[in-house]
Amino acid sequence: MGSSQNAAWPMAVICATLAKEFIEAEKKIKEGYTIDSLIEELLKDTQPVRFEDDGYSHEWGEEAKKRGLYVNESFCELFDRLNK
């Protein structure tokens, strides 16, 4: 975001997403899950998109492609993709 842009909408989306996930976690805890089991499940579910190294490195681009994730090669390509 630019300095002149209002952050209210992006923050509202982030807060709504977090609220939804907290509700899902609360349901699972009521079903008998433990906090540790929830964390284990999240770690397993998010493994395909997590890269716990330098996300700006060339290696991440290669790893992301192996995982079937979109890798932006140029701004123009990204801009075209966003406008579809």
Descriptive notes:
- With 84 residues, this protein is mainly α.
- It folds into two domains: 1-50; 54-84, no CATH class.
- The protein is 62% helix and 0% strand.
- The protein is built from four helices and no strands.
- The chain has helices at residues 8-30, 35-46, 58-66, 75-82.
- The model has no long low-confidence stretch (mean pLDDT 88).
Give descriptors for this structure:
2 domains; about 60% helix; flat; mainly alpha
Task: Give the topology.
Layout (H helix, E strand, L loop, with lengths): L7 H23 L4 H12 L11 H9 L8 H8 L2
How much is the radius of gyration in Å? 18 Å
- Proportion of residues in extended strands: under 5%
Number of strands: 0
Series of H and E elements:
HHHH
Give the count of structural domains.
Answer: 2
| Average pLDDT | 88
- How can the largest sheet be summarized? none
| Overall spatial form | flat
Q: How much helical structure, as a percent, in the residues?
A: 55-70%
- Distance between the first and last residues' Cα: 21 Å
Residue runs with pLDDT of under 50 for 5 or more positions: none
Which class do the helix and strand fractions yield?
mainly alpha
Q: How many helix segments? A: 4
Question: What's this, in brief?
Answer:
This protein is mainly alpha-helical and 84 residues long. It has 2 domains: 1-50; 54-84, no CATH class.
